[in-house]
What does this fold into?
Amino acid sequence: QVQLVESGGGLVQAGGSLRLSCAASGRAFSSYAVGWFRPAPGKEREFVAAISRNGGTYYTDSVKGRFTIFRDDAKNMVSLQMNSLKPEDTAVYYCASSERRTIWYVPRASSEFDSWGQGTQVTVSS
It folds into this structure.
C-alpha cells in the first residue's frame, strides 16, 4: 500500500486561496486514482474531488469552478488548489488513494479508496 501525507492547510479569509498537497511514498503514485474528502454533517466523509490515473477529474457540485485537482506523478504528488474559499469549506481535508488498472476511471465513493492520509485542517473565516 501507499502511504499518504497531506500538507498545506491553514487559516484563510473568505475569498482567499489555499493549495493542499498529498505526497505519496511506498509505491508509484501513477498506479492510483486519488481523491480528496472532508467530513460533512451526517456523513463520515464527503467527496470533494478526484483524479484518475490519466488526469480525468470529477468534483462535487459545491466546489466546481473554485477547486482544481491535479497530479505530478514524477513527484508522487496530487494537489488541490482551492480558490474563492467560503466559510462552509472549513473542514479537515483527507486525501485517499485507489489502486486502479483502468487509467480513466475516477472513483468517488469512499469505499473505493484503499489508503488514507491523516488529514490537514482548513479554516476559512468570514
The radius of gyration is 13 Å.
